[in-house]
From TrEMBL:
It comes from Lactuca sativa (Garden lettuce). PANTHER family: HARBINGER TRANSPOSASE-DERIVED PROTEIN-RELATED, OS12G0169200 PROTEIN. This is Nuclease HARBI1. It comes from the Eukaryota.
Length: 114
């Protein structure tokens, strides 16, 4: 039994002398890294006026007196406006990805038309 006690005390001594300093140094380095990470430069954000872009898109293509008529719409999108609107409506109804939500910056996300 004394042999086991000697082994356990030598293991404790080994842990205290070797492992604890390593763990302590690792903890210090982690704390330093976390403190220095707050100094990271953030990227410049590009302001994209989503609401204005949607308003222009609707005015140009989807309003009753749109800037571009049915012929220009068909040439650009290679389908009729009615078919396009049916597709957009079905996507919004069946897939949450196409439903209007709020993003991480608390701004309205892009609409299904966009």
């Amino acid at each position: 039994m004394e042999v086991n006690d000697d082994n356990s005390s030598s293991e404790d001594e080994l842990i205290n002398n070797n492992l604890l300093p390593v763990l302590s140094r690792t903890a210090q380095l982690l704390l330093q890294n976390n403190a220095s990470s707050s100094n990271i430069q953030r990227r410049n954000t590009i302001h994209r006026d989503r609401l204005e872009a949607e308003r222009l898109l609707i005015r140009h293509y989807f309003a009753d007196d749109s800037t571009y008529g049915h012929a220009q719409f068909r040439r650009r999108f290679r389908m009729s406006k009615g078919l396009f609107m049916r597709l957009v409506g079905d996507l919004e109804t069946n897939y949450p990805y196409f439903q209007t939500t709020w993003d991480a910056t608390n701004q309205r996300s892009f609409s299904a038309l966009q």
